[in-house]
Amino acid sequence: MISGFGHVNLGVSDIDKMVEFYTDVIGLTKAFELKNDEGNVFGVYMLLPDGNYIEFIKRAKVQEPPVSAFTAGHLCFEVEDINKAKEIIDGKGIEIIWGGMKLGKDKNWQIFINDPENNKIELMQMDPESPQRLGQAKMGFVK
Fold it and tell me: What's the predicted TM-score (pTM) here?
């Protein structure tokens, strides 16, 4: 039934701030905008390196304070070099949360940050012997 992954949707209050963060800090590319009949932007798709997307849609009603779209979760992006990712994050003045950089039980290095809408983001450097990488290899998805 399912042929692939479509996108993750995040409801946001400030699309421009989110696009700036995900472009300048995370390193994604703005793919395209969605506009209403009046020509106003109400959505933006951000392209991930593997061809998948994150979709930002402007909330109809602003929530105070902003509530994370993921009340019990996070987005995870794989990075090749966790130390370089940390340098970029530090250079942008963004706080690393949840105890700083650490080695997870899955053998992967990780850091967590918040985006401008308070969504949790994990940046993870995968170890070749991690269960994630071994599972990808078993299924024929090898990077």
Answer: 0.74
